[in-house]
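Teaching note: in complex prediction, the entire set of molecules is handled at once rather than each chain in isolation. The prompt given to students was simply: 'Predict the structure of this complex.' The entities are:
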Amino acid sequence: MFSLLSELFSYSFLVRGLVVGSLVALCAALLGVSLVLKRYSMIGDGLSHVGFGALSVAMALNMAPLAVAVPVVVLAAFLLLRISQNSRLGGDSAIALIASASLAAGVIVTSLTSGLNADVYSYMFGSILAMSEGDVLLSLVLAAVVLILFIVFYNRIFAITFDESFARATGTQVSRYNMLLALLTALTVVIGMRIMGTMLISGLIIFPALTAMRLCRSFKSVVITAAVLSVSAFFLGMVASYAFGTPAGASIVAVNTAFFLIFFLIEKVKGSK
Amino acid sequence: MKETAAADTLIRAEKLTLGYETGTVLRDVDFTVCAGDYLCIVGENGSGKSTLIKAILGLLPPRSGVIRYQNLAEREIGYLPQQTAVQRDFPASVYEVVLSGCANSLGRSPFYSKAQHARAKGNLARLGIAALHKESYRTLSGGQQQRVLLARALCATTKMLLLDEPVAALDPVATDELYTLIRRLNRDEGITVLMVSHDVSCALHDATHVLHLSEHGAAFFGTAADYRKSDVGARFLRCGCAPDFPRIRFGFFEED
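The expected output is the structure of the full assembly:
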């Protein structure tokens, strides 16, 4: 086990992936608590599909992938937020619509230009090799921004997550903080989807929060537990991926699933006593 | 002059007309709330009670007419909204929920001050739920949850509470306890209470004033004693008094 770890850390690209990935796992878990409780889980999924479309187009145009994907996904996040708040449009179906439309656009653009090659496969299912040094730097900055903003606005995020009507009535700028949540989610999704893949990044957002909620009784403990679970699952998933040669994103989600099942069983056992 | 005659006026609505893009909901409503009042807002479903709440909270600009606030800063109304499905299963401790009532006084600071923590603790004790402060909100009974939300509302205000169907999901015992608590806050601590309710019999029991909304606007505004004598009050009381009327509805709602 120890030799496996030291081997793992001897590859600089793996270390890069581990650093960026644990930061993304941390951000995703923090935001996920609020998103899951606000019933916005689908937004993460929708955004990753938009991100895929943006990355494919950027690749076809030979532009820096993150420079294109970040603004597009941020814009999509505001749009999705507005749609899911406007019940008349039917939030979930509208998100599914935008998600599959972006995915289709991405697939068409790539098949017309480079063809469905290994790069596209890595966008779909994630690759630890996808990180260049520039990506790492950008990811570090974005992750730091997400973390700092989350901590600074923690109390307000709790207030708008627990009760929007009360927060609005007592003078909290609810829509401003909802936009902040959408913005932070967009940044996290864009950074995270390189490693996790389009299809799996939303698991990183949803699983830790849902797992922590099985057992934790306060919001703060849910947030902290979700963060710890998420980073542990990421790390274990990466080790498993290296040891068994399985794709990183899928391995991480598999570990998250195992954590969820364990917590779920403990909850059931506790509840039946 | 009007202003000097009513130095303790908190809210005065004049010729208030409210509505959405789809149409007008309330027309030409007049009412006044003075410090220490217990105003019950009653009316059938769809009579515009929720719309009026939004307007009082400053979330819906009037189509015409005005709501004047005197001796009452903007957003100084402690609001107790109807509970949502999200909240009933929300993983938060009682203390976290109550403390979040102070969010409107955070200002530029990201974290709560010692004074705000003290206020939250004080309100927990005031409503007799200090022992529950570490409990998880979702494991509490309906009556306890309402007390927690009331404590939170008291963190946001010292003057006025606006309660939206506060007993909707409660059993008769918890309903009685909550009414007693609200009466105590109103009579002993001088907190002005605005309550939107289906339950008219209670309204008359504790309220000092009644605003009865019907589809076109205010059918009655005045003291509770006058309401009992009025035609509209007598008629509404006869049908609203059927003891099972509100509970059947909310029993159904709860299963939903």
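Point out the following to students. Chain B touches chain A at residues 57, 59, 74-75, 77-81, 84, 86-87, 90-93, 96-97, 100-101, 103-104, 106, 110-112, 134-136, 139, 149, 152-153, 156-157, 162 (CB under 8 Å). The first strand of chain B starts at residue 9 and ends at 20.
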